[in-house]
Design a protein that fits this description.
- There is one protein chain.
- The chain contains 8 helices and 3 strands.
- It is mainly alpha-helical.
- It has a 3-stranded antiparallel sheet with strand order 1-3-2.
- A hairpin with a 6-residue loop joins β2 and β3.
- The longest helix is centred in the last third of the chain and has 26 residues.
- The radius of gyration is 23 Å and the shape is elongated.
- This is PadR family transcriptional regulator.
- InterPro entries: Tscrpt_reg_PadR_N, WH-like_DNA-bd_sf, WH_DNA-bd_sf.
- It comes from Streptomyces ficellus.
- It holds the Pfam family PadR.
Length: about 180
């Protein structure tokens, strides 16, 4: 996710302080990974440098001065361009799971055990996401669905790999266990 573009999009509804930007981001996108304040301010500094936001006002605070940021026309144009571009699909051609399976085969360790352990972890997370989805709002449901679909694809790969371990062991010069 582009944090900068998300913050710019939030600013389209009106100027905000860094603290307010963090709260709005976390409420909409940061359920699992809230932003750190440092990320907000370093991102805003970069956006300011590139002319995508401007400081609309500075107010004294209990600590440092509070800057109120506003999106510029260039920022609106940048968000529009970003929203209309398709995201590059990630084919995961060099996955960590594949690497672990091959290394297990090459080192004489149990690839079957590795796949079973991974399958159990995927199923655990799928159960957790399914519970979260039941109790969540529409945004949470859509986020959970996205993750669940990816986990289902991983599970299919795990099953296929388990069925082909003997062939893979031969191909990489290892031993199937």
């Amino acid at each position: 996710m582009s944090i900068g573009h998300a913050l710019l999009g939030i600013l389209e509804s009106g100027p905000r302080h860094g603290y307010d930007l963090k709260r709005a981001f976390d409420a909409r996108f940061g359920q699992d990974r809230p932003l750190h304040y440092g990320q907000v301010y370093s991102t805003m500094s970069r956006l300011l440098k590139h002319g995508l936001v401007e400081v609309e006002g500075i107010e004294p605070g209990e600590g440092p001065e509070r800057k109120r940021y506003a999106i510029t026309e260039a920022g609106v144009t940048d968000v529009e361009r970003w929203l209309t571009q398709a995201e590059k699909p990630e084919p995961y051609l060099q996955s960590t799971l594949y690497t672990k399976v091959v290394l297990a085969l090459l080192t004489g360790r149990s690839a079957t055990e590795l796949l079973d352990t991974q399958r159990a972890e995927h199923l655990r997370l799928m159960r957790e996401l399914t519970r979260r989805k039941k109790d969540g709002d529409l945004a949470d449901q859509l986020i959970c669905d996205h993750a669940l679909f990816h986990l289902e694809a991983d599970l299919r790969w795990l099953e296929l790999t388990a069925a082909r371990l003997g062939q893979l062991a031969e191909a990489v010069g290892g031993t199937a266990r």
